[in-house]
Amino acid sequence: DVKVTQSSRYLVKRTGEKVFLECVQDMDHENMFWYRQDPGLGLRLIYFSYDVKMKEKGDIPEGYSVSREKKERFSLILESASTNQTSMYLCASSLPGNTEAFFGQGTRLTVV
Amino acid sequence: AQSVSQHNHHVILSEAASLELGCNYSYGGTVNLFWYVQYPGQHLQLLLKYFSGDPLVKGIKGFEAEFIKSKFSFNLRKPSVQWSDTAEYFCAVGDYNAGNMLTFGGGTRLMVKP
């Protein structure tokens, strides 16, 4: 079974802090994704990566950056956290040429 | 860009009632279609998927979905719901022309009364 692991289930950070969300997958998937989930809005794609050191912006990249130094790890970075970034963040991975994605348990981030 | 609409935001049913959740996407081409479910406190899980072939797809836990290409729809159905089906349901479209990304609908929160 594919396992996608997010480092934290819950985080509380202060406005202006730099925040790192980590995601690791164990199935050698090329594609990795970061989504945020908000009530009534479903999941919106922030960034995705199709290979090491490669990244593409999703629908809502503003205020975020990503890092993929190793194939199994994809990090989401909030450069300066703001209260409107309070949300549930979901990491996912998939095989190349395959749109089926496998999700981690999510990180609920609260920015105060 | 692809967009996905789920018509019902909240649905409340009694046990044994039939369920149908609507999902429409914005344009055709080669797409894959998915329904994901998120039970309270759990991660997103795949319920069923359509890649090609028979447009009536059967998934886990008695769920099925029908792909109607002419209507750009992929509605989810279950003949008789159970209390344990209480969850949030997400329709998603995977578009090969958009880097294999998944585009999600807004979700439908289903509550089944015992």
In short:
Chain A has 112 residues and is an all-beta fold. Chain A has strands at residues 4-6, 10-13, 19-25, 31-38, 42-51, 54-57, 64-70, 73-78, 87-94, 102-103, 107-111. Chain A has a single domain, classed as Immunoglobulin-like.
What report would you give on this structure?
- The complex is a heterodimer of chains A (about 110) and B (about 110).
- Chain A is an all-beta fold and about 110 residues long.
- Chain A has a single domain (about 5-110), classed as Immunoglobulins (Immunoglobulin-like, Sandwich).
- Chain A has no helices and 11 strands.
- In chain A, the strands form 2 sheets. In chain A, strands 2, 4, 5, 6, 9, 10 and 11 form a 7-stranded mixed sheet that branches. Chain A has a 4-stranded antiparallel sheet with strand order 1-3-8-7, with no helix packed on it.
- By secondary structure, chain B is mainly beta.
- Chain B has a single domain (about 5-114), classed as Immunoglobulins (Immunoglobulin-like).
- Chain B has strands spanning about 5, 10-15, 20, 25, 30-40, 45-50, 55-60, 65-70, 75-80, 85-95, 100-105, 110-114.
- In chain B, strands 2, 5, 6, 10, 11 and 12 form a 6-stranded mixed sheet that branches. Chain B has a 4-stranded antiparallel sheet with strand order 3-9-8-7, with no helix packed on it. A two-stranded antiparallel ribbon of chain B has the order 1-4.
- Chain B is globular.
- The relative contact order of chain B is 0.34.
- The model of chain B has no long low-confidence stretch (mean pLDDT about 90).
- Classes of the chains: A mainly beta (about 110), B mainly beta (about 110).
- The interface of A and B includes residues 58 and 94 of A.
